[in-house]
Amino acid sequence: MTSKERVLAALKHNWPDRTPLWHGVPTQEVMDGLFKYYGVHTEETLLRAIGDDFRWTAGLVWKDPDRPEPFQMPPGVKAAACETVAEVDALPWPDSRGVDVSQIREKCQKVSDCAIIGGSWAPFFHEIGWLIGQEEYFIKMHTNPAVVEAITDHVVNFHLACNDLIFREAADLMDLYFFGNDLGTQRGPVISVEHFRRFVLPSFRRLTEHAISYGLHVWLHSCGSIRQFIPDLIDIGIEALHPMQISAEGMAAEELARQFKGKLMFVGGVDVHYLLRKGTPDEVRSAVRHNKRCLCPGYVVSPSHEAVLPDVRIENLAAMFDEAKRPGEAAITAPAGQCSGPFMDARPCTAAPLRPPVR
Questions:
Q1: Residue 58: pLDDT band with limits 50, 70, 90
Q2: What was the pLDDT predicted at 336?
Q3: Confidence at residue 243, expressed as pLDDT on a 0 to 100 scale
Q4: d(CA 224, CA 206)
Q5: Which letter, b or e, does each residue of 147-177 get, where b requires 16 or more Cβ atoms within 10 Å of its Cβ?
Q6: pLDDT of res. 81
Q7: How far, in Å, CA of 102 to CA of 214, rounded?
Q8: What is the pLDDT of residue 8?
Q9: Which residues pair with 299 in a beta bridge?
Q10: Which residue in 289, 314, 313 sits closest to 301, CA to CA?
Q11: How much is the average pLDDT of 7-17?
């Protein structure tokens, strides 16, 4: 199987030849350590050596000389002061004329055998907090919901316009639209289910349906404990969830498998808080096998956050890469806990992998 075929099989919850792998987004210091460990000198050579199945090639490139950042308001313009929808509409919102997509198609063509990720990251939940202040954002959900909805529409409209440019340029070469909005803490969501459904989910739906209209699969990044939101994500057409932060409450592989196995592809789950930093290579391998048994075939081995920082041990990353490619262990059929599939061992998904306690 090619990497593209492998990932698409996992997305459809069919058995690939092995579990897909994504290395995440290591810092340059980590990349330098991996170059040295594998004896290579370029990123593409490294990704081929470790067996990474994804290429994140098509993002938002902002090139507006008059505006360094899309959502950096000019001096004196205070989005937080808006108390009416008309005031929101009058703000100098960015538009997609500052977006450059000229290099995207060529980048995609160079890695056509891989599963290609693209599109605007669209972190509107964070951008609104940056614009008006996080506390003000949450307060206005209660005191002035119409203003919150108006601000959200303007921010999301910008990302939809960017995506339209990107998708028109290269959607035929891409496989996944990947966007990110962190909604969880270690113990639960940062907002209620009711507020999620009113102020966040409609925009998730718009971004998802737009990508689907171009024939793309949709992959969401959201850190922390967001189990309460997962049924709604599945309902609107999101097919993959990252980063599966297993140290957060309710996000362990065996718990997610019981409720959502076969309904969503999970990406991540190899703990970066403790395991990849302080565990041993054998413990990393054990955790990878555990996740495979619980979640395959709809699973991608990857760190439990896309950012891989310098305190992560290179030998632990190498163990994760290597174990991902082994065809030995994979999934259980939740909730009974019996393994099945073409390359299974007979052990059930029971013992939890090494991870720190939730605090």
A1: low
A2: 36
A3: 96
A4: 23
A5: bbbbbbbbbbbbbbbbbbbbbebbbebbbbb
A6: 94
A7: 19
A8: 98
A9: 266
A10: 289
A11: 97
| Lookup: tokens for 147 | 């203003």
The most distant pair of C-alpha atoms in the chain lies apart, rounded to whole Å, by: 65
Cβ neighbours around 340 below 10 Å, total: 14
Amino acid found at 97: R
- Contact indicator for 281, 316 with CB cutoff of 8 Å: yes
pLDDT tens string 62-118: 888 888 888 888 778 899 999 999 999 999 999 898 899 999 999 999 999 999 999
The pLDDT value recorded for residue 349 is 56
Around Cβ 22, how many Cβ atoms within 10 Å?
24
Both structure tokens of 235: 């309902």
**CA triplet 327, 55, 254: central angle to 5 degrees?**
45
Q: CA-CA distances (angstroms) from residue 48 to 21, 111, 118, 199, 284?
A: 11, 11, 20, 41, 21
Residue written as token pair 């409450």: 249
Instruction: State the CB neighbour count (10 A cutoff) for residue 49.
Output: 15
Domains and CATH numbers, the chain: 3-339 (3.20.20.210)
Give me 222's structure tokens.
Answer: 């959201």
Structure tokens at 237: 């057409």
| pLDDT at 358 > cutoff 60 | no
Predicted confidence band at 333 (pLDDT cuts at 50, 70, 90)? very low
Contact status, residue 277 vs residue 253, Cβ threshold 8 Å: no
In angstroms, the CA 262 to CA 251 distance is 16
- Between 327 and 310, residue with greater pLDDT: 310
* 12 Cβ contact partners less than 8 Å away, ≥ 6 residues apart: none
The CA dihedral of 59, 128, 215, 48, to the nearest 10 degrees, is 40
Omega before residue 356 within 30° of 0, cis:
no
How far is residue 247's CA from residue 74's CA, in Å, rounded to a whole number?
40
The structure's pTM equals 0.91
- Bridge partners (DSSP) listed for residue 54: 115
CA–CA separation, 110 and 100 (whole Å) = 19
Q: Give the mean pLDDT of 315-332.
A: 82
The amino acid sitting at 210 is H
E strand intervals along 153-204: 176-180
Helix or strand holding residue 339 (H, E): strand 338-339
